[in-house]
């Protein structure tokens, strides 16, 4: 039996649904459509070309009168449904038509959102939803003059471009800092804005509309900042709201949209909803692809096949403005678990960005050249692992062609002004010409001269490829500086592989990473020992034979083979008892030299190796532990007297310094780590040339890092300001741990920070609280194994062979 | 021949060294990762650094003062550095180590 199907709305979604239905179940339904608009079904996506004059209304009609006739569809034009009676299963129209249904489809679409400002109802304020709006704009354009578009999204910009094409002077007002911020990242937003401005469209971002002014009709728009911009027409394109009133009145479940299941069924088993008014899986949709998908599913269910179900998928966004190619898809927010590949070509106005997560594309922004959008979309949809083609991925499908992949060809094909290093704005031509002009052959040299890949390092591969293209065989792209002659691997690779392969002993590292020597050398062994101590604090057994003598005997070797000993003085604070104990030790062991160090403590020099355990025993009695003045680890925390004594002190710098030192002593780091805390910006503790420094200020604690005052002299950079001592400690500890985990052995913090980029450090330590906490926790975990006083261990007999000769022979015997 | 017992190989850490005192000089006795033993004068040809305190790798030791690398087999400085350390005879009998005393060891340095 033929059922009665009534459809409220005659937009693209129900139109497509009917096409499917007539194909799948011809003659199964007697169809009646009520359309509030006095028209047949036309392609709303093509309104912009109609506005700009590239197409006419006739061009964009989807279903002409004949189609409705051929399928026996009754179409009421310009007649809005005002009531649904679910009990009687009837609908009633504004003009009084009552129609009964077996099945009802609500496809009421959406309403433009009109911002509630004074003057919004003035004549000349229009939305951009249907052909009536376009007609209104065209009428205004005929008169010429000024037009304002409120909203810098997809629709707003298309309206602006159309009005401009019709000869109006157009200004776009956008609340957000960059255009189309939901589809574009700021870089592409900037290019888009420039392109629009080049066409003579004024773009004002961060522009808040306060009121629309005019007497009877629009004359101007007033902004919050007081600016008044004249206009004879104002187009509101700030967003849409699903049109749900009718469904709500009928008592259907309504959220943001009319709630439907994945078969498009509403809470009433006789009523379906689809299109922009429907909410499925908690989402409402505005782009045509998912709406057509809804249409396909609704048709299938009506035809009796209930298997298809609506599944969310990202839809690419394209801007339909002639001459502006723009493509955006998926999720392109930055995140710690994401990486990105970026290609910029300033001259050609090309910007491409892929956001990758776990070797899969999750987001794409293309500007200027969008041909590969579909291909990227395909890779994203299929969740293709892109690691194999990572090097050439950004160049698009054409470069993938036959295997093996040749990234060289792609790089060689780049124009000279293609940007290679985004951090430092270095283009290809600059790199290749510098290589040639200065005769550079190494990556480090190229970094030093051009800054390319010297910041975040993510373009290192490209830079190396450029070196190969430029130098040919003279450059070996694999030439990472090896750790030492025992291996081809650099420090970073070794660190990565230690973690990745779970290598937990030095022999395991040497075996698995194919060391060329049987037991390494004096360069790699201490480095490996540190990496293993750092990475497996609870499992790795420290190999003392791989430590430099100072760290083995916990004293500093001097030129004559004697040692110096520096007890820890927390924050540089001492007292009579401690000083007396030191004096007694000096007398007892006839220590020839006592010297105050730069780190605010006391150095005892010229101690015979054999005496070390006894010296430590006496110092230990007085409560001293090793100052680790020899360690690639935490050395000192210098302080000034701070608010306890100083008339300028703003915080308890002494207390904070002691707290930090007590928290961090015993930790091993890639190179020595010296800290200082100054109580005010006068900086008496000289915190601004330390590895990590704190300058106390009234409002809290300014954390500094990456200073140097040795071979190099370098002031610190500010990491950031925190309010409390607790936060200061957490930030400092987390920063130290990040450095511990990433630094190359013997690489001071300022060199490491330069290599990874100060912004990256800031992002991870200051802005990403979760990461900071994780770094902090790992440091704390490691400390339980590290905070053992090496002196008291040795006083109790550990490594006693170190301090005694194996034998004395030949004494009292006659020479032969 | 005057062989003097100095101790057991296990008194020396693997990839480590111990010191022997004699009236004439200090001797460094090394044990490599392969359990070979070597004896050389405990005095770097560069600035007299105590070689027994250096890191032992392969059949070489790196001086703790300025990183000269000295061959334990022939006492020659490795790489670009030039210099030589006296090597001494050492005997390993089932782990028991002895060295051959000679004139320079017996005469105290002036």
TrEMBL record, chain A:
Keyword annotations from UniProtKB, A to Z: 2Fe-2S, 4Fe-4S, FAD, Flavoprotein, Heme, Iron, Iron-sulfur, Metal-binding, Nitrate assimilation, Oxidoreductase
NADH-rubredoxin oxidoreductase C-terminal domain sequence ranges: 317-383
Domain Nitrite/Sulfite reductase ferredoxin-like: 558-621
Start and end residues of each FAD/NAD(P)-binding domain: 4-282
Cofactor(s) required for function per UniProt: siroheme; [4Fe-4S] cluster; FAD; [2Fe-2S] cluster
Pathway per the UniProt entry: Nitrogen metabolism; nitrate reduction (assimilation)
Domain Nitrite/sulphite reductase 4Fe-4S, first and last residues per copy: 631-769
Alphabetized InterPro entries for the sequence: BFD-like_2Fe2S-bd_dom (IPR007419), BFD-like_2Fe2S-bd_dom_sf (IPR041854), FAD/NAD-bd_sf (IPR036188), FAD/NAD-binding_dom (IPR023753), FAD/NAD-linked_Rdtase_dimer_sf (IPR016156), NasD-like (IPR052034), NiRdtase/SiRdtase_haem-b_fer (IPR005117), Nit/Sulf_reduc_fer-like_dom_sf (IPR036136)
Top-level taxon of the source organism: Bacteria
Domain BFD-like [2Fe-2S]-binding per the UniProt entry, residue ranges: 420-467, 483-532
Family, per entry: Belongs to the nitrite and sulfite reductase 4Fe-4S domain family.
Record's protein name: Nitrite reductase large subunit NirB
The species this protein was found in: Rhizobium lemnae
TrEMBL record, chain B:
Coiled coil regions in record: none
Family annotation (InterPro entries): Rieske-like_NirD, Rieske_2Fe-2S, Rieske_2Fe-2S_sf
Domain of life of the organism encoding this protein: Bacteria
Name of the molecule in the record: Nitrite reductase small subunit NirD
UniProt keyword annotations, A-Z: 2Fe-2S, Iron, Iron-sulfur, Metal-binding, Nitrate assimilation, Oxidoreductase
Organism placement in taxonomy: Bacteria, Pseudomonadati, Pseudomonadota, Alphaproteobacteria, Hyphomicrobiales
UniProt key word Oxidoreductase: yes
Record's keyword annotation contains Iron-sulfur: yes
Gene: nirD
Rieske domain ranges (all copies): 3-99
Pfam families per record: Rieske
Xref: Gene3D superfamilies: Rieske [2Fe-2S] iron-sulphur domain
CDD domains named in the record: Rieske_NirD_small_Bacillus (cd03530)
């Amino acid at each position: 039996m033929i059922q009665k199907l009534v459809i409220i709305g005659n937009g693209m979604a129900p139109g497509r649904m009917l096409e499917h239905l007539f194909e799948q179940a011809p003659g199964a339904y007697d169809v009646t459509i009520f359309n509030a608009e006095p028209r047949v079904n036309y392609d709303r996506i093509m309104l912009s070309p109609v506005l700009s004059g590239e197409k006419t209304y006739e061009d964009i009609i989807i279903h002409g009168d004949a189609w409705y006739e051929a399928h026996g569809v009754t179409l009421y034009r310009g007649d809005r449904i005002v009531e649904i009676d679910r009990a009687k299963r009837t609908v009633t129209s504004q003009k009084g038509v009552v129609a009964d249904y077996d099945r009802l489809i609500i496809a009421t679409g959406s309403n433009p959102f009109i911002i509630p400002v004074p003057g919004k109802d003035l004549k000349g304020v229009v939305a951009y939803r249907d052909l009536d709006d376009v007609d209104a704009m065209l009428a205004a354009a005929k008169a010429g003059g000024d037009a304002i578009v409120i909203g810098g999204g997809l629709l707003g910009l298309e309206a602006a471009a159309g009005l401009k094409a019709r000869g109006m002077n157009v200004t776009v007002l956008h609340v957000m800092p960059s255009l189309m911020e939901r589809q574009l990242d700021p870089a592409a937003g900037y290019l888009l804005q420039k392109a629009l401005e080049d066409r003579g469209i004024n773009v004002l971002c961060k522009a808040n509309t306060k009121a629309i002014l005019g007497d009877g009709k629009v004359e101007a728009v007033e902004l919050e900042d007081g600016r008044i911009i004249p206009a004879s027409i104002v187009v509101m394109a700030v967003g849409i709201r699903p049109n749900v009133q009718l469904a709500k009145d009928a008592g259907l479940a309504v959220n943001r949209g009319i709630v439907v299941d994945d078969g498009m069924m509403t809470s009433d088993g006789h009523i379906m909803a689809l299109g922009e008014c429907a909410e499925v899986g908690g989402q409402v949709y505005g782009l045509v692809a998912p709406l057509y998908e809804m249409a396909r599913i609704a048709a299938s269910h009506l035809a009796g096949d209930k298997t298809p179900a609506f599944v969310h998928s990202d839809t690419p966004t394209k801007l339909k403005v002639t001459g502006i190619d723009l493509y955006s898809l998926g999720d392109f927010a930055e995140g710690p678990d994401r990486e990105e590949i970026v290609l910029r070509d300033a001259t050609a106005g090309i910007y491409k960005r892929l956001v990758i997560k776990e070797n899969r594309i999750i987001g794409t922004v293309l500007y200027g050249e969008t041909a590969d959008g579909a291909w990227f979309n395909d890779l994203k949809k299929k969740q293709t692992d892109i690691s194999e083609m990572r090097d050439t991925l950004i160049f698009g499908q054409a470069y993938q062609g036959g295997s093996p992949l040749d990234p060289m060809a792609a790089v060689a094909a780049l124009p000279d002004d293609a940007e290679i290093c985004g951090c430092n704005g270095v283009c290809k031509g600059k790199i290749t010409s510098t290589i040639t002009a200065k005769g550079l052959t190494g990556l480090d040299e190229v970094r030093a001269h051009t800054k390319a890949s010297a910041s975040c390092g993510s373009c290192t591969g490209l830079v190396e490829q450029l070196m190969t293209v430029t130098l040919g065989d003279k450059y070996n792209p694999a030439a990472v500086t090896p750790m030492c002659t025992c291996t081809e691997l650099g420090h970073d690779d070794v660190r990565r592989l230690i973690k990745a392969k779970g290598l937990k002993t030095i022999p395991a590292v040497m075996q698995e990473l194919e060391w060329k020597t049987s037991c390494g050398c004096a360069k790699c062994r201490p480095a490996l020992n540190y990496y293993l101590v750092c990475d497996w604090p609870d499992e790795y057994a420290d190999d003392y034979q791989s430590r430099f003598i100072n760290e083995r005997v916990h004293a500093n070797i001097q030129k004559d083979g004697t040692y110096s000993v520096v007890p820890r003085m927390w924050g540089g604070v001492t007292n009579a008892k401690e000083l007396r104990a030191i004096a007694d030790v000096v007398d007892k062991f006839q220590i020839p030299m006592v010297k105050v160090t730069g780190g605010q403590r006391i150095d005892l020099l010229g101690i015979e190796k054999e005496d070390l355990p006894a010296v430590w025993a006496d110092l230990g009695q007085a409560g001293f532990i090793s100052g680790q003045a020899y360690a690639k680890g935490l050395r000192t925390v210098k302080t000034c007297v701070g608010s306890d004594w100083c008339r300028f002190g703003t915080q308890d710098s002494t207390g904070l310094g002691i707290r930090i030192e007590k928290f961090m002593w015993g930790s091993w780091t890639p190179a020595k780590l010296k800290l200082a805390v100054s109580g005010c910006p006068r900086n008496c503790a000289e915190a601004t040339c330390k590895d990590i420094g704190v300058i106390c200020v009234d409002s809290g604690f300014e954390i500094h890092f990456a200073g140097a005052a040795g071979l190099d002299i370098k002031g610190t950079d500010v990491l950031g300001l925190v309010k409390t001592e607790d936060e200061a400690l957490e930030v400092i500890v987390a920063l130290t741990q990040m450095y511990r985990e990433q630094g190359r052995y013997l690489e001071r913090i300022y060199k490491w920070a330069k290599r990874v980029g100060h912004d990256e450090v800031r992002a991870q330590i200051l802005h990403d609280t979760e990461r900071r906490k994780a770094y902090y926790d790992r440091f704390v975990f490691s400390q339980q194994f590290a905070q053992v006083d090496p002196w008291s261990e040795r006083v109790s007999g550990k490594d006693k062979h170190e301090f005694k000769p194996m034998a004395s022979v030949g004494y009292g015997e006659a020479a032969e | 021949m005057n062989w003097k017992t100095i101790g057991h190989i296990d008194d020396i850490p693997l990839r480590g060294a111990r010191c022997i005192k004699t009236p004439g000089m200090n001797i460094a006795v090394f044990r490599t990762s392969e359990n070979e033993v070597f004896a050389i004068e405990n005095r770097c040809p560069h600035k007299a650094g105590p070689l027994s305190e250096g890191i032992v790798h392969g059949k070489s030791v790196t001086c703790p003062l300025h990183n000269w690398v000295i061959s334990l087999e022939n006492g020659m400085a490795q790489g670009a550095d030039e210099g030589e350390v006296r090597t001494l005879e050492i005997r390993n009998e089932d782990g028991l180590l002895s060295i051959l005393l000679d004139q320079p060891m017996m005469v105290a340095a002036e």
